[in-house]
Amino acid sequence: METFQTVALVGRFRSNGIADTLDRIEEFLRQRGLAVLRLAGGDEASSGGKTPLDLHADAIDLAIVVGGDGTMLGIARELAPHGVPVIGINHGRLGFMTDIPLERWSEALAAILDGQFEAEERTLLDARVLRDGEQTIAFEARALNDVVVGRGFVGRMIELNVEVDGKFMYTQRADGLIVATPTGSTAYALSANGPILHPQLGGIVLVPVAPQALSNRPIVLPDSSCVTVRIGEETDARVNCDMQTFSDLHPGDRIVIARSAHRIRFLHPSGYSYFATLRGKLAWQALPVLSPRPI
After folding, report:
1. What strands lie across the sheet with 176-180, from one edge to the other?
2. pTM of the predicted model, to two decimals?
3. Which of 43, 69, 126, 223 is catalytic?
Protein backbone atom coordinates (compact mmCIF):
# COMPACT_ATOMS: atom_id res chain seq x y z
CA MET A 1 0.00 0.00 0.00
CA GLU A 2 1.24 3.48 -0.88
CA THR A 3 2.05 5.49 2.25
CA PHE A 4 2.59 9.21 2.79
CA GLN A 5 4.77 10.86 5.41
CA THR A 6 5.16 14.51 4.37
CA VAL A 7 2.20 16.41 2.93
CA ALA A 8 2.10 19.85 1.33
CA LEU A 9 -1.13 21.66 2.22
CA VAL A 10 -1.70 24.31 -0.43
CA GLY A 11 -4.25 27.12 -0.27
CA ARG A 12 -4.86 30.79 0.39
CA PHE A 13 -4.13 30.84 4.11
CA ARG A 14 -4.87 34.57 4.42
CA SER A 15 -8.37 34.24 2.96
CA ASN A 16 -11.19 34.51 5.52
CA GLY A 17 -13.31 32.06 3.56
CA ILE A 18 -10.77 29.27 3.61
CA ALA A 19 -8.29 29.86 6.44
CA ASP A 20 -10.31 28.02 9.09
CA THR A 21 -10.76 25.00 6.82
CA LEU A 22 -7.03 24.87 6.12
CA ASP A 23 -6.30 24.99 9.84
CA ARG A 24 -8.69 22.08 10.48
CA ILE A 25 -7.18 20.01 7.67
CA GLU A 26 -3.67 20.66 8.99
CA GLU A 27 -4.70 19.53 12.49
CA PHE A 28 -6.37 16.44 11.01
CA LEU A 29 -3.18 15.50 9.13
CA ARG A 30 -0.92 16.08 12.14
CA GLN A 31 -3.15 13.90 14.32
CA ARG A 32 -2.53 11.09 11.83
CA GLY A 33 1.21 11.49 12.35
CA LEU A 34 1.98 13.28 9.07
CA ALA A 35 4.45 16.11 8.65
CA VAL A 36 2.69 19.10 7.07
CA LEU A 37 4.15 21.95 4.99
CA ARG A 38 1.81 24.92 4.61
CA LEU A 39 2.37 26.44 1.18
CA ALA A 40 0.62 29.42 -0.37
CA GLY A 41 -1.51 28.91 -3.45
CA GLY A 42 -2.99 31.18 -6.08
CA ASP A 43 -2.08 34.86 -5.90
CA GLU A 44 -0.45 34.40 -2.47
CA ALA A 45 2.34 32.32 -4.05
CA SER A 46 5.59 33.94 -5.09
CA SER A 47 5.44 35.39 -8.60
CA GLY A 48 9.14 35.35 -9.36
CA GLY A 49 11.95 32.81 -9.26
CA LYS A 50 11.52 29.58 -7.33
CA THR A 51 8.29 29.23 -5.37
CA PRO A 52 8.25 27.51 -1.97
CA LEU A 53 6.55 24.53 -3.63
CA ASP A 54 9.48 24.20 -6.05
CA LEU A 55 11.93 24.27 -3.18
CA HIS A 56 10.11 21.58 -1.18
CA ALA A 57 8.81 19.36 -4.01
CA ASP A 58 11.48 16.69 -3.60
CA ALA A 59 10.72 16.37 0.13
CA ILE A 60 6.94 15.83 -0.06
CA ASP A 61 4.99 12.65 -0.78
CA LEU A 62 1.60 14.20 -1.43
CA ALA A 63 0.02 17.59 -2.09
CA ILE A 64 -3.47 18.56 -0.96
CA VAL A 65 -4.83 21.58 -2.82
CA VAL A 66 -7.74 23.47 -1.27
CA GLY A 67 -9.19 25.96 -3.73
CA GLY A 68 -10.46 26.08 -7.28
CA ASP A 69 -9.28 24.65 -10.56
CA GLY A 70 -7.11 27.71 -11.18
CA THR A 71 -5.07 26.98 -8.06
CA MET A 72 -4.82 23.32 -9.06
CA LEU A 73 -3.52 24.22 -12.53
CA GLY A 74 -0.55 26.10 -11.13
CA ILE A 75 0.29 23.43 -8.54
CA ALA A 76 -0.02 20.57 -11.03
CA ARG A 77 2.37 22.22 -13.48
CA GLU A 78 4.96 22.64 -10.75
CA LEU A 79 4.65 19.15 -9.27
CA ALA A 80 4.43 17.12 -12.48
CA PRO A 81 8.25 16.91 -12.97
CA HIS A 82 8.62 15.64 -9.38
CA GLY A 83 6.04 12.85 -9.57
CA VAL A 84 4.13 14.09 -6.51
CA PRO A 85 0.45 13.01 -6.49
CA VAL A 86 -2.22 15.63 -5.87
CA ILE A 87 -5.60 15.68 -4.12
CA GLY A 88 -8.07 18.49 -4.85
CA ILE A 89 -10.63 19.81 -2.35
CA ASN A 90 -13.03 22.20 -4.04
CA HIS A 91 -13.29 25.73 -2.67
CA GLY A 92 -13.99 27.36 -6.03
CA ARG A 93 -16.79 27.61 -8.58
CA LEU A 94 -16.25 24.70 -10.98
CA GLY A 95 -14.28 21.84 -9.47
CA PHE A 96 -13.52 19.71 -12.52
CA MET A 97 -10.09 18.91 -10.99
CA THR A 98 -10.67 19.81 -7.34
CA ASP A 99 -13.33 17.15 -7.15
CA ILE A 100 -13.76 16.53 -3.39
CA PRO A 101 -16.64 18.63 -2.00
CA LEU A 102 -15.61 20.90 0.86
CA GLU A 103 -18.19 19.37 3.22
CA ARG A 104 -16.73 15.88 2.69
CA TRP A 105 -13.02 16.57 3.02
CA SER A 106 -12.45 14.68 6.29
CA GLU A 107 -14.00 11.38 5.23
CA ALA A 108 -12.42 11.59 1.77
CA LEU A 109 -8.93 12.32 3.11
CA ALA A 110 -9.22 9.59 5.75
CA ALA A 111 -10.08 7.00 3.10
CA ILE A 112 -7.31 8.12 0.73
CA LEU A 113 -4.68 8.13 3.48
CA ASP A 114 -5.84 4.60 4.38
CA GLY A 115 -5.09 3.53 0.81
CA GLN A 116 -8.65 3.61 -0.49
CA PHE A 117 -8.32 5.74 -3.61
CA GLU A 118 -8.29 5.72 -7.39
CA ALA A 119 -5.22 7.14 -9.13
CA GLU A 120 -5.42 8.90 -12.48
CA GLU A 121 -2.62 10.33 -14.61
CA ARG A 122 -3.20 13.30 -16.88
CA THR A 123 -1.25 14.65 -19.85
CA LEU A 124 0.41 18.06 -19.99
CA LEU A 125 1.70 20.11 -22.93
CA ASP A 126 5.03 21.88 -23.37
CA ALA A 127 5.13 25.08 -25.44
CA ARG A 128 8.12 26.98 -26.85
CA VAL A 129 8.19 30.23 -28.83
CA LEU A 130 10.99 30.27 -31.41
CA ARG A 131 12.14 33.64 -32.74
CA ASP A 132 14.78 35.13 -35.06
CA GLY A 133 14.77 32.26 -37.49
CA GLU A 134 14.37 29.78 -34.62
CA GLN A 135 17.69 30.90 -33.13
CA THR A 136 16.07 32.22 -29.94
CA ILE A 137 13.70 30.54 -27.48
CA ALA A 138 11.63 33.56 -26.46
CA PHE A 139 9.24 31.74 -24.12
CA GLU A 140 8.82 28.30 -22.56
CA ALA A 141 5.99 27.04 -20.39
CA ARG A 142 3.93 23.98 -19.51
CA ALA A 143 0.14 23.63 -19.60
CA LEU A 144 -2.30 21.19 -18.03
CA ASN A 145 -5.37 22.68 -19.71
CA ASP A 146 -4.33 24.42 -22.90
CA VAL A 147 -1.96 26.55 -24.92
CA VAL A 148 -3.85 29.46 -26.50
CA VAL A 149 -2.61 31.70 -29.29
CA GLY A 150 -4.88 34.74 -29.33
CA ARG A 151 -5.26 38.35 -30.32
CA GLY A 152 -2.92 40.95 -28.92
CA PHE A 153 -3.74 44.48 -27.80
CA VAL A 154 -4.79 45.75 -31.24
CA GLY A 155 -7.81 43.45 -31.20
CA ARG A 156 -7.87 42.45 -34.88
CA MET A 157 -8.16 38.91 -36.18
CA ILE A 158 -4.86 37.12 -36.35
CA GLU A 159 -3.40 35.01 -39.15
CA LEU A 160 -2.02 31.63 -38.17
CA ASN A 161 -0.23 28.97 -40.19
CA VAL A 162 -0.60 25.52 -38.60
CA GLU A 163 1.57 22.46 -39.18
CA VAL A 164 1.27 19.01 -37.58
CA ASP A 165 4.39 16.85 -37.44
CA GLY A 166 5.98 19.07 -40.06
CA LYS A 167 3.07 18.73 -42.51
CA PHE A 168 1.04 21.79 -43.51
CA MET A 169 -2.49 21.72 -42.12
CA TYR A 170 -4.06 25.11 -42.86
CA THR A 171 -3.78 28.88 -42.67
CA GLN A 172 -6.64 30.54 -40.86
CA ARG A 173 -7.79 33.94 -39.75
CA ALA A 174 -9.49 33.89 -36.38
CA ASP A 175 -9.54 35.43 -32.92
CA GLY A 176 -7.24 32.62 -31.85
CA LEU A 177 -6.46 28.93 -31.66
CA ILE A 178 -6.77 26.67 -28.59
CA VAL A 179 -4.53 23.62 -28.33
CA ALA A 180 -5.96 21.63 -25.42
CA THR A 181 -5.34 18.42 -23.51
CA PRO A 182 -8.25 16.13 -22.61
CA THR A 183 -8.26 17.85 -19.20
CA GLY A 184 -8.54 21.23 -20.93
CA SER A 185 -11.31 20.07 -23.25
CA THR A 186 -13.83 21.09 -20.55
CA ALA A 187 -12.27 24.56 -20.15
CA TYR A 188 -11.88 27.33 -22.76
CA ALA A 189 -12.05 24.78 -25.59
CA LEU A 190 -15.54 23.72 -24.52
CA SER A 191 -16.80 27.31 -24.53
CA ALA A 192 -15.48 27.62 -28.11
CA ASN A 193 -17.60 24.58 -29.14
CA GLY A 194 -14.82 22.02 -28.90
CA PRO A 195 -15.51 18.37 -28.04
CA ILE A 196 -15.13 16.83 -24.58
CA LEU A 197 -12.24 14.35 -24.45
CA HIS A 198 -12.12 11.74 -21.71
CA PRO A 199 -9.00 12.38 -19.55
CA GLN A 200 -7.56 8.95 -20.36
CA LEU A 201 -7.83 9.51 -24.12
CA GLY A 202 -4.48 10.03 -25.86
CA GLY A 203 -5.47 13.10 -27.82
CA ILE A 204 -4.90 16.82 -28.35
CA VAL A 205 -7.76 18.98 -29.59
CA LEU A 206 -7.32 22.06 -31.80
CA VAL A 207 -10.22 24.50 -31.51
CA PRO A 208 -10.37 27.74 -33.55
CA VAL A 209 -11.76 30.77 -31.72
CA ALA A 210 -14.29 32.66 -33.88
CA PRO A 211 -12.70 31.70 -37.22
CA GLN A 212 -13.39 33.82 -40.29
CA ALA A 213 -14.19 30.69 -42.32
CA LEU A 214 -16.94 28.62 -40.72
CA SER A 215 -15.42 25.53 -42.36
CA ASN A 216 -12.55 25.69 -39.83
CA ARG A 217 -13.73 23.16 -37.28
CA PRO A 218 -12.23 21.57 -34.15
CA ILE A 219 -10.04 18.52 -34.79
CA VAL A 220 -8.63 15.87 -32.44
CA LEU A 221 -5.06 14.71 -33.05
CA PRO A 222 -2.99 11.91 -31.51
CA ASP A 223 -1.19 13.20 -28.43
CA SER A 224 2.09 12.13 -30.04
CA SER A 225 1.63 15.01 -32.52
CA CYS A 226 3.82 18.10 -32.59
CA VAL A 227 1.79 21.18 -33.46
CA THR A 228 3.59 24.24 -34.84
CA VAL A 229 1.77 27.58 -35.16
CA ARG A 230 3.48 30.35 -37.15
CA ILE A 231 2.36 33.93 -36.65
CA GLY A 232 1.51 35.98 -39.76
CA GLU A 233 3.73 38.86 -40.78
CA GLU A 234 1.21 41.56 -39.84
CA THR A 235 -0.28 39.91 -36.80
CA ASP A 236 -0.45 41.22 -33.23
CA ALA A 237 -0.79 38.16 -30.99
CA ARG A 238 -0.08 36.65 -27.58
CA VAL A 239 0.31 33.13 -26.27
CA ASN A 240 -0.71 31.83 -22.85
CA CYS A 241 -0.54 28.54 -21.00
CA ASP A 242 -3.54 27.78 -18.77
CA MET A 243 -4.36 31.52 -18.81
CA GLN A 244 -1.64 31.90 -16.17
CA THR A 245 1.65 32.42 -18.02
CA PHE A 246 1.74 34.84 -20.96
CA SER A 247 4.07 36.10 -23.66
CA ASP A 248 3.69 38.65 -26.46
CA LEU A 249 4.42 37.29 -29.93
CA HIS A 250 6.27 38.85 -32.85
CA PRO A 251 5.39 38.42 -36.53
CA GLY A 252 7.06 35.28 -37.82
CA ASP A 253 7.30 33.61 -34.38
CA ARG A 254 6.75 29.85 -34.29
CA ILE A 255 4.99 28.29 -31.31
CA VAL A 256 5.90 24.60 -30.98
CA ILE A 257 3.48 22.58 -28.84
CA ALA A 258 3.96 18.92 -27.90
CA ARG A 259 3.04 16.46 -25.20
CA SER A 260 5.16 16.94 -22.10
CA ALA A 261 7.43 14.17 -20.85
CA HIS A 262 5.79 14.72 -17.44
CA ARG A 263 2.30 13.73 -16.27
CA ILE A 264 0.39 14.73 -13.16
CA ARG A 265 -1.15 12.08 -10.91
CA PHE A 266 -4.49 12.83 -9.26
CA LEU A 267 -5.81 10.80 -6.34
CA HIS A 268 -9.61 10.46 -6.08
CA PRO A 269 -11.80 8.81 -3.44
CA SER A 270 -12.88 5.26 -4.26
CA GLY A 271 -15.92 5.26 -6.52
CA TYR A 272 -14.82 8.41 -8.38
CA SER A 273 -16.59 8.82 -11.73
CA TYR A 274 -15.59 11.32 -14.41
CA PHE A 275 -19.12 11.06 -15.81
CA ALA A 276 -20.60 11.98 -12.44
CA THR A 277 -18.38 15.07 -12.48
CA LEU A 278 -19.66 16.01 -15.94
CA ARG A 279 -23.27 15.47 -14.86
CA GLY A 280 -22.81 17.71 -11.86
CA LYS A 281 -20.86 20.50 -13.56
CA LEU A 282 -22.72 20.55 -16.89
CA ALA A 283 -26.18 19.84 -15.44
CA TRP A 284 -26.69 16.73 -17.53
CA GLN A 285 -29.97 15.00 -16.82
CA ALA A 286 -30.52 11.40 -15.78
CA LEU A 287 -33.68 9.38 -16.27
CA PRO A 288 -35.37 8.41 -12.99
CA VAL A 289 -35.04 4.79 -11.96
CA LEU A 290 -38.42 3.19 -12.56
CA SER A 291 -39.83 0.45 -10.42
CA PRO A 292 -40.65 -2.75 -12.33
CA ARG A 293 -44.27 -3.15 -13.31
CA PRO A 294 -46.17 -5.78 -11.37
CA ILE A 295 -46.94 -8.85 -13.42
Report:
1. 219-222, 203-209, 176-180, 146-151, 237-241, 245-249
2. 0.92
3. 69
From 47, 80, 115, give the residue that closes a domain. Answer: 115
Q: Quick one: average pLDDT of 77-102?
A: 90
Residue 159: phi and psi, rounded to 5, are -105, 125
What residue type is 234 in one-letter code? E
| Helix (H) and strand (E) counts in the chain | 6, 16
pLDDT at res. 141: 97
Question: Is the four-CA dihedral 238, 239, 244, 246 of positive or negative sign?
Answer: negative
Tell me the CATH number at 156: 2.60.200.30
pLDDT in tens, 207-261: 999 999 988 999 999 999 999 999 998 889 999 999 999 999 999 999 999 999 9
**Known catalytic residue at 248:** no
Residue 42, domain extent: 6-115
